Amino acid sequence: MMWLWLPLLIVMALWLWPRAFDRAVSGRVEGFLTASRAEVDPGDEVSLCVTLVNRSWMPIPSAEIELELPPQLSFHRDEAVRLGHMTLSVLPRRQADIAFTVYGWRRGPATPIQASASISEGLGLVPTHVAIANRASLAVRPRATRLKYRFPLSPNGWMTRESRTFPDETALRSVRPYAYGDPVRHIHWRASARLGQLMVKEFFSTQTPDWTLVLSAQATEPYWSGALHPDAFDALCEQALAIARWLARGGGRVCFATNAACGNRQRATIAWLSAEGVASLLAHAQPIATCDLDALLKGLVRSSSSPRHWIVLSPLRQSAQAARMAQFGIHVVWMSMSSSEEEDRAIAMEASNHATH
Q: Known Pfam families for this protein (predicted)?
């Protein structure tokens, strides 16, 4: 007689257990996503951690975590892999940390990172979805590239002459830790003895002017009628970072200006930045123009602190507003990514002429 009731008991258990599990864990399981770094270079790895917290007294036999990455990230260093998943179990009143190793793939803010979790009683009859709060703020810097245009400015700020007979227009800017390849004569021995590590001198030259570096995201006239293609904007960002690093190595300071939307900023950005500051800003830049380029150039002209040597990177050809900058004593080098080889040579010659002023 007992054998007749056994199938019925099994069916009732299969019917009651998923519903009892759902009532026990409902509202008592939560998750969130964090990142080990805020910014990465293309190809660098970063750890994305999904934390699943079980606040109930019921064990979770099966929890499936699924992660979908934006185009800026990849699960593989050499190819774009954007989907990843993992299955695990969580004990009662415990939490589980699941780490995913991802790599920077292309420039830009890595949003949105879509994470989802599904828990079940082990049979998979009634899955329960858990919301994953995204606490990760991650962006990918522009890729390191060579200068498209060679500016014959000859930055001589990293050489110095100690002899008073042959004075040199250089001055000590700062000291920094020794790096492989630095000349031995540039070691600052007093600072090295005081700090306990080799320090080298960094110089800037009064012959190396400060520059205003302008990056434009405007693709159409008027500026709000169309957005710039992401690939074209990434190429502009890579060249802007290469120029900023080249000027910084020569000792010049960079006043960076852009009309691209950067993070939460909905207006144009004008700031004195280091090369790494430019890289950090461009990691959050989007190919959307917040104002007209001519309006940005007019604002720079009115600024008393803006340098008189400008490098403008724009997807459009040189505007009439930039051609009139010489009336205000401003030397403009206009770089259009769609220019031809003849225009490239003209730009290099123009930069050479401006450097001699």
A: DUF58 (PF01882)
